[in-house]
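Appendix B. Raw example, untouched.
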Amino acid sequence: MGLRVTLNQMTWFAVPIVMGVVAEIFGRELSFYVVGLTATVMIVVLGLWASWRNIFM
């Protein structure tokens, strides 16, 4: 529960800042794709790491 709340607070703070920087570089429309793709890749990497480390077993 605490980890989820911490990550939600970090997301509320970090995503607008990161998205603003990406929008300045790539444009507003492409920033949604870049941030979404980055989040998806991070989730896949975390899932692979968790399965390799047998965290849920």
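End of appendix B.
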